[in-house]
Amino acid sequence: MGFKKGFIWGGASASYQIEGAAYEDGRGMSVWDMFCKQPGRITDGSSGDVACDHYHRYQEDVDIMRELEFKAYRFSVAWPRVLPEGGGKINEKGLDFYDRLVDALLKANITPYATLFHWDYPYALFRRGAWLNPDSPKWFADYAEVVAKRLGDRVKNFFTLNEPQCFIGISYDSTEHAPGISFPVWDTITMMHHVMMGHGLAVKALRGNVKDAQIGFAPCNGTFYPATNSPGDIDAARQACFDTTESWTWCLTSVSDPVMLGTYPEKFIKMFGKYLPASWEKDLETIHQPLDFYGQNIYNGSCAASDGNGGYKIIPRAPGYACTNAVNGLGNLSKWPVTPECLYWGPKFLYERYGKPIYITENGCSCHDVISLDGKVHDPNRIDFLNRYLLALRRAADDGVDVGGYFHWCVTDNFEWAKGYTDRFGLIYCDFTTQQRVIKDSGYWYREVIRANGENL
Ligand code: FCB
User: Which residues approach ligand 1 with their CB closer than 6 A?
Assistant: First the structure.
């Protein structure tokens, strides 16, 4: 069977991580601009002020994606570039940039997939309470409408939000990400509820303004795979995947159930229901908008086994377990476990529960990438990583999971949030001093996978 005909092979990126041009053409400030100015927040003291200068070099980047024969490109629109104050006056020049980008993509035969919000929250709205403000869902929907009206004649595929788990969980609970202020659980639960309301209203705005829109969202969560193929362990992994625990932001169903099923999990209500806004039951109808696909960013997972009593236990990782690398010695950066099984079991469990075509909206790894003496970038570890993960994904497709697409994170190396430029996730190397791009071996390898629709794996 393999990947279906028309499978979407693409790459992903996010505005603040690649665009640069932070002070150009009327762009407003985002929480990330302000966060990067605070000493100690970013590992290497950097910011996204310039990043990959994609704002000016988008044509070159589109040309490379065309050379690599990408079918699709998932990018995000910077809310404060379009609405410098978060709402109100539209910055036409900001929208013009996305016009140019979309036109270039379409000319290159690359289908645009636009994410409305990938973390660069308008600072002006942060000062009005951000997602804690009961008006915040409407602010997001109004912004969605502006984007839909301008790009919706050419962009048909949308993701509303990227990883609410992160932009609430590690931004307002733990504080590694902007704005990096810790709030108590009753506030973060309220924020997340508003985020989901924003999602629902934005879907309505997109449907109302874009003919034939295809819409999803792109959460991330812990994925789990079974220790063995015994029915008990498989059931344990499924339980772990959908359970509610104290770390509620990382529990898949805290967000995906309301969005996809229109309900909070019973256990969530028992544990956290008292913190939800009074209107929560009524709001579920708005939150639960029909979606066309289910996107999820999946990088790794944990192993679960039956506890012998109908429950599950998490199996600790073995000493010296395989993990991805980081660029330099600034700390334990994106050293993430290599667990290809998650790209089989993740989509399988998600498809069982939500019944929508599954899109892997992000997957990839940070490697120790350098330009070698021969002028090339050799990244065998990334090729091996992708080979293993994509084989697992193909196995899911073979077993009847409707897998619609795969977006590699990332297209070019970029500003990796709090880790600055110390991580390299791209298929394309970026020299941040000269802005030179070099296609890595993995980029050419990915082109072969695209050409063969994954049959060569
Ligand atoms: C994801 C983010 C993306 C990038 C990758 C490495 O959590 O969505 O912006 O940082 O991790």
Answer: 14, 17, 162-163, 166, 220, 297, 362, 409, 416-417, 425
> What are 240-286's pLDDT values in tens digits?
999 999 999 999 999 999 999 999 999 999 999 999 999 999 999 99
How far away, in angstroms, is 219 Cα from ligand 1 center?
A: 11
72 Cβ neighbours under 8 A, 6+ residues apart: 8, 9, 10, 110, 111, 112, 113, 157, 405, 407
Tell whether the torsion through CA atoms of 111, 116, 119 and 121 is positive or negative: positive
The CATH number given to whatever domain includes residue 300 is 3.20.20.80
In this model, does residue 64 exceed pLDDT 90?
yes
Contact 427, 11 (CB under 8 A): yes
Instruction: Report the percentage of the chain scoring pLDDT > 70.
Output: 98
Q: How far apart are CA 364 and CA 346, in angstroms?
A: 15
* Distance of alpha carbon 250 from the chain centroid: 14
Report the separation in Å between the CA atom of 334 and the middle of ligand 1, taken as the mean of its atom positions: 10
* Assigned domain for 329 exists: yes
- Cα–Cα dist 299/320, whole Å: 19
Structural domain includes residue 2: no
d(CA 107, CA 131): 37
pTM: 0.98
Mean pLDDT of 436-456: 98
Residue in the structure block whose two tokens are 């910077």: 78
For atom 5 of ligand 1, which residue has the closest CA?
409
Residues 205, 277: contact at Cβ < 8 Å? no
Question: What sign does the CA torsion over 208, 210, 211, 217 have?
Answer: negative
Contacts of 62 (CB under 8 A, 6+ apart): 73, 101, 104, 105, 108, 110
Write out the residue range of the structural domain in which residue 55 sits: 8-452
Q: Is 353 among the domain residues?
A: yes
- Assign residue 132 a region: left if phi > 0, alpha if psi is -120 to 50, beta otherwise? alpha
Supply 87's token pair: 């709402």
370 in a structural domain = yes
Q: How many domains does the structure of the chain reveal? A: 1
Contact 180, 139 (CB under 8 A): no
Under a CB-based contact definition with an 8 Å cutoff, are residues 125 and 20 in contact?
Answer: no
In this predicted structure, the answer to whether residue 333 has a pLDDT above a threshold of 70 is no
Q: Is 346 helix (H, G, I), strand (E, B) or coil?
A: helix
